[in-house]
């Protein structure tokens, strides 16, 4: 819990601050008061203060002197000044001393609470960094003491195909090396795979934290009781091989799953990572290689579930029934630079497939390839070369990593959309104003188009835009909008059987009578007669 210190020589000011904010709801368990610097220092000596709210002018020294002392003796404390002095030099000095904010009395308590929340965020982030540093330091020393970790050579050779997985050959090798395994034993394989680290780690830090994961896994009661052996199979992935000759299926799985769930919670909290545990089925020694391959497939195909224990016996598959999206509409949005709308549609699809039980990486790879193909087509249509737009991004991110999970794919897609739309906008800057206006009108034809909205899109004054557009096209903007709406309506009347009221709405008219009037004025026919005469001709 957090500790707060309020320092002000005015008693009513201190009490007002204390009463004006729900400190307990913000996570403070201790609220301390001081009316001069001497009292403040005494409180710092007795308590670990997280956040300091301080006045500037006080007896026995000012707030700047106190903050300088705090920076030296309690550098992790976040400090805020609350004063009556609207003096730039004071504010400048506060910033130089590292104060988070400089607020003037009387302060609104909502503003004070917002600033305190910001300070809490910084305090918590610093505490998390310190916790990580302490955890890393502890396991670094353990790693130094026990490195290299000796893995049973037999299992390494078996899983890496250095020895044939035939029963006779295995028995011969066991006898030769005096390994106490026999053909009545059954082994249960559990793969523990890190999905992501909450922090960006160096390669060395990652190795140390993997050792921390391994060290904690060795302490699980089910691992100890079943003579568990741990094998590092790749970066971020461990195998626990349990001797389960006496394994009771129902109770054994329940106990193991409970231990693994507790292990996952601990890893989230102390080792700053998300992971999943993939549990195979009891298997004789000669079938362990096949089981290892099956568990590896489980791990590879999991793209939606995180921080869970997944049992092979309950595994379901379902992605073959999920269709990939048709991306023609997405390509149109991309061509028009509608980034927000495109993101919303992609997010809606990806959020939807997250809920499908049995979803695997096959669908994500298909989505990745189709989406990339759609991007290439749009860039080609716009006269842009793909390698100039995002070559560095693609080189730095391999498809295997992008399709590791729905969340990883969504992050990559959103980044790619940002990059591509940015280049498209840059390319459009060189287009004539009229061409950009026509594109905007085409994308918003069914909306209430105003001259001001269109002018805002091209960043021009409405009157100036009107003159430019008329000069380049020979039409006013309103005449062009009417022309496009009528042309679009004519096409739908002839080529579709949609109700005329729907067509009117599709081209921006909510009032059918007004649509009919404008259509007849432009074509000489009302919509019904136009449809009949043209369909007869066809």
UniProtKB/TrEMBL annotation:
Domain of life: Bacteria
PROSITE patterns: HTH_ARAC_FAMILY_1 (PS00041), HTH_ARAC_FAMILY_2 (PS01124), RESPONSE_REGULATORY (PS50110)
Residues making up the signal peptide according to the UniProt record: none
Residues the record lists as 4-aspartylphosphate modifications: 55
Response regulatory domain sequence ranges: 3-120
Record keyword DNA-binding present: yes
Keywords recorded for this protein, A-Z: DNA-binding, Phosphoprotein, Transcription, Transcription regulation
Record domain HTH araC/xylS-type: where: 435-533
Keyword check for Transcription regulation: yes
Pfam families, per the entry: HTH_18, Response_reg
Classification via PANTHER family: ARAC-FAMILY TRANSCRIPTIONAL REGULATOR, HTH-TYPE TRANSCRIPTIONAL REGULATOR EXSA
Protein name stated in the entry: Helix-turn-helix domain-containing protein
């Amino acid at each position: 819990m957090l500790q707060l210190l309020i320092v002000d020589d005015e008693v009513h000011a201190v009490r007002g601050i204390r009463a004006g904010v729900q400190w307990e709801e913000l996570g403070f368990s201790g609220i301390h008061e001081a009316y001069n610097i001497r009292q403040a220092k005494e409180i710092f000596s007795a308590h670990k203060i997280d956040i300091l709210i301080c006045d500037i002018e006080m007896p026995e020294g000012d707030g700047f002197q106190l903050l300088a002392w705090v920076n030296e003796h309690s550098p992790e404390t976040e400090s805020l000044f609350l004063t009556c002095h609207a003096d730039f030099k004071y504010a400048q000095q506060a910033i130089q001393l590292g104060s988070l904010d400089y607020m003037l009395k009387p302060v609104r308590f909502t503003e004070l609470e917002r600033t305190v929340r910001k300070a809490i965020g910084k305090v918590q982030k610093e505490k998390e960094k310190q916790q990580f540093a302490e955890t890393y330091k502890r396991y670094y020393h353990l790693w130094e003491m026990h490195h290299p970790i000796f893995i049973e050579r037999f299992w390494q050779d078996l899983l890496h195909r250095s020895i044939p997985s035939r029963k006779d050959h295995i028995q011969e090798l066991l006898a030769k090396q005096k390994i106490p395994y026999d053909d009545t034993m059954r082994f249960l394989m559990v793969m523990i795979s890190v999905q992501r680290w909450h922090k960006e780690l160096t390669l060395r830090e990652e190795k140390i934290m993997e050792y921390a994961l391994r060290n904690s896994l060795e302490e699980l009661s089910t691992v100890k009781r079943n003579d568990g052996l741990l094998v590092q199979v790749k970066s971020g992935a461990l195998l626990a091989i349990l001797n389960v000759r006496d394994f009771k299926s129902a109770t054994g799985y329940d106990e193991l799953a409970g231990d693994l769930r507790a292990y996952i919670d601990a890893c989230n909290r102390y080792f700053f990572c998300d992971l999943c545990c993939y549990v195979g089925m009891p298997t004789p020694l000669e079938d362990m290689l096949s089981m290892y391959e099956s568990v590896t497939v489980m791990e590879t195909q999991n793209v939606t579930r995180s921080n869970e224990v997944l049992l092979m016996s309950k595994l379901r598959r379902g992605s073959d029934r999920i269709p990939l999206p048709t991306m023609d509409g997405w390509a149109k949005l991309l061509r028009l630079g509608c980034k927000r709308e495109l993101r919303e549609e992609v997010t809606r699809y990806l959020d939807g497939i997250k809920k499908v039980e049995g979803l695997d990486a096959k669908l994500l790879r298909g989505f990745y390839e189709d989406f990339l193909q759609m991007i290439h087509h749009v860039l080609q249509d716009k006269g842009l070369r793909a390698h100039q737009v995002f070559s560095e991004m693609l080189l730095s991110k391999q498809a295997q990593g992008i399709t590791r999970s729905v969340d990883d794919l969504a992050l990559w897609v959103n980044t790619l959309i940002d990059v591509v739309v940015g280049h498209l906008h840059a390319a459009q800057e060189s287009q004539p104003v009229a061409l950009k206006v026509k594109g905007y009108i085409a994308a918003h034809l069914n909306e209430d188009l105003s001259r001001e909205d269109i002018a805002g899109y091209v960043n021009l004054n409405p009157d100036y835009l009107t003159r430019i557009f008329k000069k380049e096209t020979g039409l006013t903007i309103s005449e062009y909008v009417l022309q496009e709406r009528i042309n679009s309506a004519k096409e739908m009347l002839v080529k579709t059987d949609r109700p005329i009221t729907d067509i009117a709405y599709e081209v921006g008219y909510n009032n059918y009578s007004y649509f009919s009037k404008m259509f007849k004025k432009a074509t000489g026919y009302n919509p019904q007669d136009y449809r009949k005469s043209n369909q007869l001709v066809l």
